[in-house]
Hints:
The complex is a heterodimer of chains A (678) and B (73). Chain A has 678 residues and is α+β, with helices and mostly antiparallel strands. Chain A contains 23 helices and 15 strands.
Amino acid sequence: MEKKLIEQVFEQQVKNxxxxxxxxxxxxxxxxxxxxxxxxxxxxxGGNYEFFQKNEFGKNVSLELNEEQKTEILNYxxxxxxxxxxxxxxxxxxxxxxxDFEQIKKTNSKIPENVDDYKTALEDDFLKNxxxxxxxxxxxxxxxxESVGAxxxxxKARVAAESSPDTDGELAPTDENSPIPSAAATTxxxxxxxxxxxxxxxxxxxxxxxxxxATYGIAFNEDGSGDLRDEPSxxxxxxxxxxxxxxxxxxxxxxxxxxxxKDAVVPLDAGQQxxxxxxxxxxxxxxxxxxxxxxxxxxxxxxxxxxxxAELKKQNPSLPENMEDAKKLLNSEHFDKLExxxxxxxxxxxxxxxxxxxxxxxxxxxxxxxxxxxxxxxxTDAYAKKHNVIEITFPNDSNAIQQFFGKQKIESxxxxxxxxxxxxxxxxxxxGQEASLKLTPRESQDLFRMMAKEKAYTDLGRFAxxxxxxxxxxKQALPELAGTETLRNTLKNSGNFKTGSxxxxxxPLDVEAQQNLKNIASQTRDGVYTGVSTxxxxxxxxxxxxGLGLIGADAAISVFLCGHPPQIxxxxxxxxxxxxxxWRDMKQDGRINRTDERALEMQQKMQEQLAQxxxxxxxxxxxxxxxxxxxxxxxxxxxxxxxxxEKGRPKDExxxxxxxxRDEGVEVGATRAASAGK
Amino acid sequence: MRLIKGTxxxxxxxxxxxxxxxQKVSKFEEDFSADxxxxxxxxxxxxxxxxxxxxxxxxxxxxxxxxxxxxAA
Lengths: 678, 73
């Protein structure tokens, strides 16, 4: 039996899409929204597809799908896009529609010559049935995505997410050879112009930073990372400029005796001054843009609105005309490159500080340090690869592991890898109760590797200190491990695994010093400013404040805003950061650190600090223009929304100690003067 | 009508506007001062409620408009 006309048109549409996919270079990520999952994908030169989802920090995380699953997702996307196309034809050709049939005809060879024939075909039940069929496929695709750890409802500031509600499977093309065009992609700034625009923005920011005498703090780790507020950092640098523009760099570190050295002034010659200033500009430019990017990513918190952006644009004319373009620009490879440069700049400043202060380089202090580090790294890799069960006991001074548990006291943690490679974890609480951790596949892999690292450190340490019982296991996992005598000498002479030093990681004696430094570094986050000299008026609204939680930086404030004293903006930024972290915690159901106890503790701290802020700055808050009050209200709303989204409305049961404001003896609806009492 | 600011039974900061039953006003006042949890719906109707230390300004305005409730400064 011959297929119905509409069926033929649909199949042709699918073929067209498949061909477009084949021709697609695959270089740039393409985005799709499926049942609340916002994913992207690309294709390598061999035609292999890879799927991603952005994590909470905006980084693309690969989704581990097998070929069959990838095919199922792609087929769904293609079919859904094709169906949407025909539905658009239907609505477009309906009475009063503006669609151009001649144009439509060119897109599909099966579309009949006569418009009325096509309109009749579009009325067939086929489209309705196809919609039902695809709805079932959508559920199946959702289940696949969920099974590999994709997270639903991550409302990113993405074009795909902002088109019509019925965008499931719709693609937001990111290159000009897009197989399936989408109206959502039509903006003024073309992708080919991104590089130029991004360069213009960063150059402008660098100029602004050159003219500003703010004291800028950077907290970072050995590898240059560590600009996230949540993450403890190992070192800090403070940069101060005097009136003549001379730069002073101050460094915080732990010396070889385990003491914390604060604000050691780094001697700099003229050339190094210029070099350091350039690195600082890169770091601060990145920080400022990351603040804005963070604000976009927190749109659902009311972090930034188009009108905020319009005001921001007035102050910073180099920004793109519209907010959608700014979002896309900040999600482009140009921002990623800037991020990589900022990390390199942090590392370079770190090297400069250590070299000029004549501090021993960790890697070059002793050859044995290097060898011991290599042994540790290789043993970590071997354990992570070959061991299917790893157990570690607490107390454990690995901050990386501890952060999975927040303030919970843990006795032990066990990781299991099953035959399919899936990793699960159980842990024993201080009360002896056993519980399991619910993590994404990526988090599971990370934690398992951290555990392997911890076990490798412990086993090497025990061996170095005379316990030979760990050697056989280590040697079995890593056959190339040095012989017993050589290994023990290396470990002992490295100065690690015995008395502790800052070369590999702190030993027991240095833990406190390390923690002290981390605490100081935490207060010296990227962008802790004093004496901000920029005279820009406060305009951006809560947008940048929303982003502050992600970057721990008042950087964006300094560059983009001001007019209000920095100490006020810094305090408000901290409150916004707290609100954002609280919100993130509340929303991440199933995460180990999201306990009611912790949530309560956080919200109490947050509300108390807000009340204190309002009291301290009541004069400024009452100012005529009301900008600060508006911003504060936005931050307050963010705090409240976090609880509201999770809990709905408060319970109708009130605890003792509440405050009562009453209407004394006045009937509802009657005119009466305000009265109050406790 | 009363505005209550405090913490709910779960410990979250919250506020409530309650329209008290006339007959239960005294009982409410008495129980409110006692050191125990009180269930608001036993004394009247909760008109509005939310999380945070204070109702937002727009809520206050709404309560003024609809119930003529003005919170004293």
